[in-house]
Amino acid sequence: MGIKERKEREKERRRQQIMVAAKRVFSTKGFSKTTMEDIAKEAELSPGTLYLYFKNKDELYASLSLRILQYLIIRLEHVVNEKISDPGKRIQALKEAMFDVYEFDPMILINMFHLQSSDTLKNLTPKLLDQIKELSKRSLETMASIFEDGIRNGYFIDKNPVAIADIVWSMFSGVILWETSKKIINKQKDYVKSTLETAFEIFERGITRNTA
User: Fold this and answer.
1) What per-residue confidence (pLDDT) applies to 73?
2) Closest CA to 113 of 65, 149, 161
3) Do 1-54 and 56-207 have matching folds?
4) d(CA 130, CA 132)
5) Tens digit of pLDDT for each residue in 135-154?
6) Which of 64, 106, 136, 209 sits at 20 to 30 Å (Cα–Cα) from 29?
7) What value does the CA radius of gyration of the chain take, rounded to a whole number of Å?
8) If you average pLDDT over each of 51-60, 93-102, 177-186, which comes out highest?
9) Angle formed at CA 180 by CA 130 and CA 122, multiple of 5 degrees
10) How deeply is 1 buried, as exposed, middle or buried, from its count of CB atoms within 10 A (0-12, 13-18, 19+)?
11) Bridge partners for 208 per DSSP
């Protein structure tokens, strides 16, 4: 391994070290109360070192979303490649994929939902913003292809597949955010999975073509 490769590997290792520390601090203190100094302390680095890797706290916060978006695409592509003909089983596979994404990292997923509806995106470097946009676009297109194929084969009603994908994403994020907020009041209750089950059941009834 050459000097350049070693430097790049060390740079990536340090970047991951910072992101792991940031995740721990964000999950404990929340975004608004967390400072770059808090993260630097958790990572056992100087605050100045953090700024060599991340422009600001917003960028560090947003960088955590990349991994969850990448996993989302992997799970959606798996659904596409299964080539399921039964419409009910197709929706079931999509529901399981979405719930897997939630279980993969609930905190980061919820952070990503908040990120998408905030001004934080304005404070990111063009490179990171482009990465988030590209991954978000790819995930939406992959989900839309699931419905496009179903529409073409007569399983689903003939509506814009991108609009249908938008509806699924809105439904998914809405359920996650609402049920998470309810857990603040009663931590003993967790209805995320059961509510998603109901939401997808109703969605399936609405999108499946009546062949009777």
Assistant:
1) 95
2) 65
3) no
4) 5
5) 999 999 999 999 998 898 88
6) 136
7) 20
8) 93-102
9) 25
10) exposed
11) 156
Q: How far is Cα 156 from Cα 127, in angstroms, rounded to an integer?
A: 38
Q: Is the pLDDT reported for residue 155 higher than 60?
A: yes
Task: Check whether 134 has a pLDDT greater than 90.
Answer: yes
**Phi first, then psi: what are they for 49, rounded to 5°?**
-65, -40
**H helices present in the chain, as ranges:** 3-29, 36-43, 47-53, 57-82, 87-104, 106-116, 126-152, 161-185, 192-207
Q: Which two tokens stand for residue 123?
A: 């404070």
**By C-alpha distance, which of 141, 11, 137, 130 is closest to 63?**
130
* Distance between CA atoms of residues 90 and 96, nearest Å: 10
Q: Which CATH superfamily is domain 56-207 in?
A: Tetracycline Repressor, domain 2 (1.10.357.10)
Contact (Cβ atoms closer than 8 angstroms) between residue 17 and residue 54: no
Q: What is the pLDDT of residue 105?
A: 87
CA trace torsion 50, 72, 175, 171 (10° rounding)? 130
Fold of 1-54: Arc Repressor Mutant, subunit A (1.10.10)
Give dist(CA 190, CA 181) in Å, integer: 10
Q: Where are the domains of the chain?
A: 1-54, 56-207
Amino acid at 82: E
The residue behind tokens 């194929």 is: 149
